[in-house]
Amino acid sequence: MYKRIVLAYDGSAPGQQALLDCHDIAQWSQSELFLVAVMPSPVSAVGLEGYVYDPKMDERTKATYQSTLDTGVSRLAASGLTVHGEVLVGDAVDEIARYASRINADLIVVGHKHLEGWAARWWRGSISKSLIEHSPCSVLVVITP
Length: 145
Fold this sequence. Notes:
The chain is of the alpha/beta class. The protein has one domain (about 5-145): HUPs (Rossmann fold). Helices cover about 45% and strands about 25% of the residues. It has five helices and five strands, in the order E-H-E-H-E-H-E-H-H-E. The protein has helices at about 15-30, 55-75, 90-100, 115-125, 125-135, and strands at about 5-10, 30-40, 80-90, 105-115, 140-145. It has a five-stranded parallel beta sheet, with helices on both faces. The chain is globular and about 50 Å long.
């Protein structure tokens, strides 16, 4: 049975569906939920044109991620579930897997939307596919049509 569930949450349509599914699983198994939003590190924004680090922009970006996360936490907590939320910074797959390992999670839940066309699939990659390979526990991928 799942006692500690990590939900990788970004507020997108697939993320919203994952939140609903996670809610049902948590109620059924009386699990503790851990929502995480992963913000890319500022260094990953460096491109060919160059980049100047702006701490104020970094703070605004983190505030946006925190707001999205707080919305998800509030929705789940309102139904009586035990929920924790944390904004992580870095590569999404690495940070989610590391967090799940740190809290001894039994399950990671992530939303996924099929990408249109081979170019989109090749260019963007798939966090859910990579997470399956790096996860310390089971991964539930919630598909959104």
